Amino acid sequence: MRHHPRPPPRLWPIILATLAGTAILLGLGIWQVQRLHWKEGLLAELAQKAKSEPVDLATAEAVYRAGNAEFLKVRFRATYKHDAGMKMISTYEGGQGWTIITPAASSDGFAVIVDRGRLPGQRLEHFDKPPGEVELTGVVRVYNHGQAYFDPDNDPKANNWYWWDVPAMLAAAQMPAGLKPLPFVVQLLPGTVVAEFPQPPEPRANLANHHLGYAITWFGLAITLLAVAGVYIRTLRNADESQPLPPI
């Protein structure tokens, strides 16, 4: 009986799919490497700003308008408006605490929201409220991400704040007319206040930097895909060569 040659297995769809998948995975890995370099540069820039000499609020506002004021160090003289003080639920040394937020009128004509630091829950009604004009040193914090998905609504009337809303805080503060409102928060620096509470924490960028791990994952998946596809193709070829040809 005559035998027709068995057609070889169709390998080209597998090869094309493997190449396409590998290209996508490598592209994602390269993108994460680029993000890693960007994030490292941003963190280095923020660290450098925190170590730089402080500027006044007018300079800080100009830098903010240029889009790059986060963690810029500032120093200015201002008078707190304690009757408009605010509290935001927070933590203190692992327990329940509060962040104390006080509007201030600067001597050069700005209305600014000041993050004075944290205190334990039981000290909410007993903390320092310096009278008169004081010198403040802090860093600019730009909170423009708005309300997170699980954040409750702020309640200015009850003075319950859960997330940073600078325009609403300025409106609730009812600052004197003629002051220019600043769209950012000044977070005081540790060591710049003598009071026991509130205590300013060390400013942190809170920028997650997991891009190296992501890049390794994508590159590893690309290598795995090539290895699995290579084994599968070899298995198909060996199986085709070992099977007898059907009779005609």
What does the secondary structure layout of this molecule look like, with pairings?
Layout: H1 12-51, H2 57-65, E1 73-80, E2 86-92, E3 95-106, E4 110-120, E5 133-141, H3 166-173, E6 180-188, H4 211-242
Parallel strand pairs: 4-6
Antiparallel strand pairs: 1-3, 1-5, 2-3, 3-4, 5-6
Helix pairs in contact: 1-4
Brief characterization of the structure:
This protein has helices spanning 12-51, 57-65, 166-173, 211-242, and strands at residues 73-80, 86-92, 95-106, 110-120, 133-141, 180-188. The chain has 248 residues and is of the alpha+beta class.
How would you describe the overall organization of this protein?
This protein has 248 residues and is α+β, with helices and mostly antiparallel strands. Among the domains are: 56 residues; 117 residues, no CATH class. The protein is 36% helix and 23% strand. The chain is built from four helices and six strands. Strands 1-3-4-6-5 form a five-stranded mixed β-barrel. The longest helix has 40 residues. The chain starts with 11 loop residues before the first helix and ends in a 6-residue tail after the last helix. 21% of the residues are buried. The mean pLDDT is 86.
